[in-house]
């Protein structure tokens, strides 16, 4: 099977900061035939310094499990670390049936799933940094889009590690993340599918920093109140463009594309927002 030499490009296509770890293009056995993604956390102490202190472990493995332990790492800052283009020992025994979520695949082998190990303590109640969670959504979307697979082909490690292939509740990761909501956000990044009840003030998936960027740039005067999901999609696209501008407001080189296929016209801006075109 060909190596996954597109991993860095898939992350960059979603506007993410990418570190290509030395040796990633030849790391891991050349056995991958990926059709899905598994989301993990590293369960690393918060006292360990740095953005991705688990990197060496993911590369080299543990005494009980040889590395690499995932294809991707995801740092606290949202930086993506590309670690291995071949098979990684991240899935273990398990399976994922995509059909109940509208997919057509039944995944039951580690060569079929790409692993993302996100830096986190693994302790319930420990917040996920907004920038990291946003990058998690985008990275999953970029990988699935490259594979040509639907969001149904994304699962948590805890969803994978279930009977009959695994001991019940063997894995908790990624801790505290509602995967149904997680998949809705990933679906929006992929193709603009509706994510939830549109009667929202500011959806949980919309980064607070994006609102501030739009206020600073003069696009908004304050955080808006709006009930249309399409309007928030439009704001998300505008925020990406604004944050790519260097100081002074002069457009720099074109960045990677934003989400594809957002549906519908967002309609007029609410009274609490002032647009300057």
Task: Describe the structure in brief.
The chain folds into two domains: 7-191, Peptidoglycan recognition protein-like (Lysozyme-like); 198-277, no CATH class. 26% of the residues lie in helices and 12% in strands.
Distance between the termini: 50 Å
Q: What oligomeric assembly is this protein in? A: single chain
| Fraction of residues in β-strands | 5-15%
Kindly state the percentage of residues in helix.
Answer: 25-40%
CATH superfamily of the largest domain: Peptidoglycan recognition protein-like
* Total number of beta strands: 10
Q: What's the overall average pLDDT, rounded?
A: 81
Estimate nothing, just give the exact number of structural domains.
2
Q: Which fold name is given in CATH as the topology of the largest domain?
A: Lysozyme-like
So what's the overall shape?
Answer: globular
Per CATH, the architecture of the largest domain is 3-Layer(aba) Sandwich
Give the radius of gyration.
19 Å
Q: Supply the helix-strand structural class.
A: alpha/beta
Largest sheet: 6 strands, mixed
Order of helices and strands: HEEHEEEEEEEHEHHHH
CATH uppermost class of the largest domain: Alpha Beta
Low-pLDDT stretches: 193-201, 247-277
Q: Give the helix tally.
A: 7
In what order do the strands lie side by side in the largest sheet? 1-6-5-9-2-10
Overview of the molecule:
This protein is an alpha/beta fold and 277 residues long. The protein contains 7 helices and 10 strands. The strands form 3 sheets. Strands 1-6-5-9-2-10 form a 6-stranded mixed beta sheet. A two-stranded antiparallel ribbon has the order 3-4. The N and C termini lie far apart (50 Å). It is globular and about 55 Å long. Helix 3 packs across helix 5 and helix 6 crosses helix 7. The chain folds into 2 domains: 185 residues, Peptidoglycan recognition protein-like (Lysozyme-like, 3-Layer(aba) Sandwich), CATH 3.40.80; 80 residues, no CATH class.
């Amino acid at each position: 099977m060909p190596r996954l030499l597109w991993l860095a490009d898939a992350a960059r296509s979603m506007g993410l900061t990418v570190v290509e770890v030395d040796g990633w293009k030849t790391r891991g056995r050349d056995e991958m035939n990926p059709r899905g993604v598994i989301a993990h956390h590293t369960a690393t102490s918060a006292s360990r310094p740095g953005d991705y202190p688990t990197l060496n472990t993911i590369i080299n493995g543990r005494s009980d499990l040889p590395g690499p332990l995932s294809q991707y790492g995801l740092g606290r800052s949202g930086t993506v670390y590309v670690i291995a283009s071949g098979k990684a020992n991240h899935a273990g025994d398990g399976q994922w049936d995509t059909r109940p979520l509208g997919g057509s695949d039944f995944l039951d082998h580690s060569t079929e799933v790409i692993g993302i190990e996100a830096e986190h303590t693994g302790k319930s109640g420990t917040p996920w940094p907004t920038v990291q969670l946003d990058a998690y959504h985008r990275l999953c979307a970029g990988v699935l889009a490259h594979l040509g697979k639907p969001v149904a082909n994304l699962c948590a490690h805890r969803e994978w590690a279930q009977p009959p292939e695994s001991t019940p509740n063997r894995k908790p990761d990624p801790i505290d993340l509602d995967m149904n909501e997680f998949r809705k956000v990933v679906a929006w990044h992929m193709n603009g599918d509706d994510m939830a009840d549109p009667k929202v003030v500011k959806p949980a998936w919309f980064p607070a920093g994006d609102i501030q960027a739009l206020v600073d740039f003069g696009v908004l005067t304050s955080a808006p109140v709006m009930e249309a999901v399409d309007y928030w999609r439009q704001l998300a696209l505008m925020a990406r463009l604004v944050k790519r501008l260097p100081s002074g407001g002069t457009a720099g080189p074109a960045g990677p594309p934003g989400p594809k296929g957002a549906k519908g016209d967002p309609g007029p801006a609410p009274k609490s927002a002032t647009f300057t075109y």
